[in-house]
Amino acid sequence: MTDTSRSFVVAVVDDDPGILRSLEYLLESADYDVRSYTSAQALLGSGALPKIDCLISDIDMPGLDGLELLKEVRIVRPRLPVILITGYPDRLGRLPQQREANLRCFSKPFQGPELLEALSEAICAGG
After folding, report:
1. In b/e form, how buried is each residue of 82-117, taking b as 16+ CB within 10 angstroms?
2. What is the pTM of this model?
3. Cα–Cα–Cα angle for 92, 26, 40, nearest 5°?
4. N or C end: fewer C-beta atoms under 10 angstroms in the chain?
5. What total number of domains does the chain contain?
6. What is the pLDDT of residues 56-76, one digit of tens each?
7. CATH number (domain holding residue 55)
């Protein structure tokens, strides 16, 4: 990571407090400015969407899930880089990632360095 990565804001959405905290630590250790949300509704209601450079979201959440969040985000920020994560890897085959250059997917457990690399690539590609 470069020293300029601190200027990049990453929103993380996950209903599991342990995963949310782990992602916060990982991203902050790489000098990203992290905004954490325990639900898709919390992110959408925060007004932060226009200010973020990338979104990392769990797919499987109560209420508005990650796929529904992706649809909402695409309305407001169609080119925003999004990284989706899931504990159910079989769901990855049904995602639209082949059709979207600014969408990446990971199954849990994932490797921190791989996620950071995908995040860096996504942000560099420009959202």
Report:
1. bbbbbeeeebeeebeeeeeebbbbbeeeeeeeebbe
2. 0.88
3. 50
4. N
5. 1
6. 999 999 999 998 999 999 999
7. 3.40.50.2300
